[in-house]
Amino acid sequence: MLKVLRPAIARVLTPVGQVLARTPITPNAITIVGTIGMSAGALWLFPTGHLFVGVVVCTCFVVTDMLDGTLARIKGTTGKFGAFLDSTMDRIADAAVFGGIAIYFVRGGNNHLLAGVALFCLVAGALVSYAKARAESLGLSCDVGFAERTERLLIGLVATGLAGLGVPYVLPAGLWLLAAASAFTFGQRVLAARRSAAQLEMAARHDAGPEG
User: Which of these is catalytic: 65, 68, 86, 90?
Assistant: First the structure.
């Protein structure tokens, strides 16, 4: 849903990327540092109840996650390993965010149900990403989804940050919304992969022609 904002974000980050391109800093280094910073902030601050500060820290490192791709394009170092590393680090960061929220509910929030919802969001988000990656590895079209990674992270962090500012009920509502949206998106991608597979099979039979 937020893909329309990516060109605008790229224009904002391009000047920063141009400055970094004149340094020895590599896109992969930015990816790793961003993941470590985001994971440390989420797993240290969320469980201790510092929700708003944790969101601020995570948001700062989310920006670095966007910057690595910009720097790679400017330096001309885009490649398969960079894409693999970026996707892998994204899964680690997502796990840290929702794992940190789950720990918060177990320790300070005293709500095991919401801890379970947070863990469901973690697992469902991983399945959403895996479904697309696996489908594309098989040559299937699966570029659909109501709640992609950016939307999931935005909902989770905004709800957590508002809860840290004292807004009541916003974090439970955000988690339930995210759980439903993630499950829906996973279903979208499974159906899209199924349709794509059926279309490929029909095309193959058509190309093979009648027997004899």
Answer: 90
